């Protein structure tokens, strides 16, 4: 994630909605991938400015005005009341249930990081409201009778399963509860489990449909990830019953990736987005000097940065932030994703 600058010169961050130096109200402009200082023009219209000058007139997203969960802006000439990220929402949590607003806010913040990833990499996507067949949409739902625990290995009535189906990404908002998510992480024996990680994994399934299946790349995909025609339900069942193969670390980024070629793809895709974003953050903060020139350069920088983050975490008494090993077979799959995103991504920085 980049950092941004206020018209007063102060450094701004992605989540800010007010400049702590000059007090200006702020809004994020997805068209410019930038924060802007806002001047109230009245009637719900705001002039947006960056240190480079006037960026035009905008309105605040309806989810900011009504619910205080969004800091993205809508260009005044557009009729939409929701910003580019909120327009993708098909289902939002029931806000009459105590605690749901806080969870939803957390979910929305992570979702905007995902949409930023996609915009920055120039990955092509549309909302379902524009294209029902190939568009993207989100459903943020809670279990019917949430007890603070959830099950995602077998179906029982009223349970919401985080996942992707035909462009619709469903997130069980209990994932926004730190205690419940950590309990699930331990139960599933995962190295890490985050809301943003869920978004990046599930969008991997979306782009598999778009770029691999619809993009006629099944042959090259299968040569690296295996044959996805393998029965998916059966593969997941046997993964949950028997666990991953003993030597999974040699070939997969996570144990779950070993369950089925689709999951391997989504895990690698999510990791790639994570690495790209973390390296942009490191660059924006001046922790690394260079922007990656190519994949091997990117991985060299990432090995250094991720080792540093882990050592910093240990100094602070925390677990490793990046508890993963990138073996050669995993890197082969990630370079495939890197090349694909480089070809399909229109806006590269
Ligand atoms: Zn300022
Ligand atoms: Zn919004
Ligand atoms: Zn998946």
TrEMBL record:
Q: Which Pfam families match?
A: Peptidase_Mx, Zn_ribbon_DZR_6
Taxonomically, the superkingdom here is: Bacteria
Q: Which residues cross the membrane?
A: none
The Zinc-ribbon domain extends over 4-96
Query: Which InterPro entries has this protein been placed in?
Result: UCP012641 (IPR031321), Zinc-ribbon_6_bact (IPR011201)
Q: What is this protein called?
A: Zinc-binding peptidase
């Amino acid at each position: 994630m980049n950092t941004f600058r206020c018209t007063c010169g102060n450094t701004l961050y992605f989540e800010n909605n007010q400049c702590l130096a000059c007090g200006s109200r702020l809004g994020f402009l997805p068209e410019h991938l930038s924060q802007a200082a806002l001047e109230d023009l009245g009637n719900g219209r705001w002039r947006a400015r960056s240190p480079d000058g006037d960026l035009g007139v905008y309105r605040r997203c309806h989810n900011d005005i009504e619910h205080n969960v969004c800091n993205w802006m809508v260009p005044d000439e557009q009729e939409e009341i929701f910003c580019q990220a909120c327009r993708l929402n098909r289902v939002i949590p029931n806000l009459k249930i105590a605690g749901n607003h806080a969870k939803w806010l957390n979910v929305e913040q992570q979702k905007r990081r995902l949409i930023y990833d996609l915009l920055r990499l120039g990955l092509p996507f549309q909302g379902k409201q524009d294209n029902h067949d190939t568009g993207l949409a989100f459903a943020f739902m809670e279990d019917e009778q949430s007890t603070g625990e959830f099950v995602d290995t077998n179906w029982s009535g009223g349970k919401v399963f985080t996942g992707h189906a035909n462009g619709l990404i469903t997130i069980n908002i209990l994932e926004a509860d730190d205690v419940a998510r950590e309990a699930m992480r331990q139960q599933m024996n995962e190295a890490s489990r985050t809301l943003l990680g869920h978004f990046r994994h599930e969008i991997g399934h979306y782009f598999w449909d778009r770029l691999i299946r619809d993009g006629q790349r099944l042959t090259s995909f299968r040569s690296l990830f295996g044959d996805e025609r393998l029965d998916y339900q059966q593969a997941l069942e046997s993964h949950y019953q028997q666990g991953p193969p003993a030597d999974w670390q040699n070939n997969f980024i996570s144990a779950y990736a070993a369950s089925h070629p689709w999951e391997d793809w989504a895990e690698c895709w999510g990791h790639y987005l994570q690495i790209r974003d973390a390296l942009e953050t490191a660059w924006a903060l001046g922790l690394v000097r260079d922007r990656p020139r190519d994949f091997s350069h990117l991985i060299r920088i990432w090995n250094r940065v991720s080792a540093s983050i882990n050592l910093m975490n240990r100094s602070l008494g925390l677990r490793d932030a990046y508890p993963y090993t990138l073996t050669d077979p995993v890197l082969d799959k990630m370079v495939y994703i890197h090349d694909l995103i480089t070809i399909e991504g229109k806006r590269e920085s």
